[in-house]
Amino acid sequence: MVFSSLLFIFLFLPITLLMYYGAKDKWKNIVLFIMSLLFYAWGEPVYVLLMIFSTIVDYTHGMKVEENLNKGNRKKAFRYVISSAIINLSLLGFFKYADFIVSNVNIVFNTNIPLLHLPLPIGISFYTFQTMSYTIDIYRGDAKAQKSVIDFGTYVALFPQLVAGPIVRYQTVADQINQRIHSEEKFADGVNRFCIGLGKKVILSNQLAVVADGVFNAAIGNISVLESWLGIICYTLQIYFDFSGYSDMAIGLGKMFGFDFLENFNYPYISKSISEFWRRWHISLGSWFRDYVYIPLGGSRVSKLKIYRNIFIVWFLTGMWHGAEWTFVIWGLLYGLIIAMERAFLNEWLEKRSNAFRHIYVLSTVTLLFVIFRSLTIGDALDFYKVMFGLSNNPIVSNQLYIYIIDYWYVIIAAMILSTPVVKIAKEYINSKIDVNESKSLQILYGLSLSMCVLVSTIMLCSSTYNPFLYFRF
Question: Which pTM value belongs to this model?
Fold first, then answer.
């Protein structure tokens, strides 16, 4: 079940909200826990057992870590942290990377070990990182162990951020698990945020996906040079509105149930360096790797050589986190190389260039690297690059290119504009220039625009079965 589905919007969510607000405060977490398990079980009933197992493992390990810290036995407490990490990473490794490892062993050693072909549990990369951070935070003294297994299970299985984040660390919501604020204003903010995310996903991302998928799924010899560029530009916009839209819906749903999740995107396509881009893109993942990998390795407080080592370790793991394919590994390592170059000398050089040049540098780099991210194999990516740069016999233009432009030009232009903070800046400017009565009129107009957004999204969902969600792959 996905947030941008009619089943979720008009059945699951209303029923859950009625049950949640109809329950007494002491029962609200139980309602959330049960409904979250049902949400997850809708698509993968067997893997609910995996999530419950992971919940019990980390709940008991967290209790043991705190118990030994209170006794002054930090070594034993640390062993429980390691035990928790090993169990979590073993589960993630088995379900996500087993076939990747076996297939590479078969290639290197010319063996014929059969693949497992296990379906990837939805959201396992996200909730594994969340549960790992729990025991680490307790060991560091950043959080207290949760005494109720139901309350801890609510944190792990919480459906608003379960399948695609943002990655919610326990320390950021520890106080909200048992005591959170519910108000009409907060609920309204949540509804607004959900509607915006729904529009991003359905009206923009799904339409951009038609072009991107059409180009990348076509035979490489049948696409033109300009068509390849249009395809990767649409994919670059698609993945942003897909994932940021889902994050907006998750944050909005969290507010409806009284939670405040941290932001996950901050207009990354306006960045002026790749380092800045990754401070604005998938913020929860970047901060997780920073706090639990980069800094423990020494961060920037070590020698230059070790700093670059730390950068490459983080970006190797970032690539692997996204998927069990060499395309993701190389994609991650290339980002590590660019960020290391920026730290070494490139940032100093970029600061002397114009803002326009720096924006072009970021957008072109991100777009070109998304070719590797989107391709199934490195060979596919190289073939696509050849078409993009006219190194093959493909034509410059094609009839299909004209069809895409005629059918989707307005969506592409709208996506380009809305990927920048133009609307946000305009809204802030207008609010600073109007009086109270005009403000009320604008609020009504804003409410009507959100209602129209939901109406259009609903019509599009009713009239089409094409509703892809990219981050289910991860």
Answer: 0.92
d(CA 343, CA 251): 33
Query: Which one is catalytic: 61, 117, 282, 322?
Result: 322
Provide the residue type at 254 as one letter: G
DSSP string computed for 379-426:
HHHHHHHHHHTT-SS--S--HHHHHHHHHHHHHHHHHHHHTTTHHHHH
CA distance 243 to 260: 18
Q: Is the pLDDT of residue 465 over 70?
A: no
Burial class of 443 by CB neighbour count within 10 A (0 to 12, 13 to 18, 19+):
exposed
From first CA to last CA, the distance across the chain in angstroms is 16
Packing angle of the helix pair 170-178, 149-157 (nearest 10 deg) = 130
Q: Which structure tokens are listed for 320?
A: 């692997």
Measured distance CA(469)–CA(243) in Å, rounded: 8
**Cis link prior to 468 (omega < 30° from 0)?**
no
Rounded to an integer, the average pLDDT of 29-57 is: 88
Q: Are 199 and 371 in contact (CB under 8 A)?
A: no
Angle at 381 between CA 375 and CA 384, to 5 degrees: 110
H helices, E strands: number in the chain? 21, 0
Which residue type occupies 318?
A: T
**What is each CA distance from 73 to 65, 82, 83, in whole angstroms?**
9, 15, 16
Q: Does the active-site annotation cover 322?
A: yes
| SS3 label, residue 80 | helix
Please give the Cα distance from 208 to 197 (Å, whole number): 15
Token readout for 346 is 């490139």
**pLDDT band at residue 469, thresholds of 50, 70 and 90?**
low
pLDDT 10s digits, 77-98:
999 999 999 999 999 899 899 9
Q: Are 232 and 374 in contact (CB under 8 A)?
A: yes
DSSP 122: T
The C-alpha atoms of residue 306 and residue 260 are separated, in whole angstroms, by 36
Query: Is 132 exposed, middle or buried, given 0-12, 13-18 or 19+ CB atoms closer than 10 A?
Result: buried
Distance, CA of 418 to CA of 427 (rounded, Å):
13
**Alpha helices of 42-73 — where are they, by DSSP H?**
47-70
Type of residue at 389: F
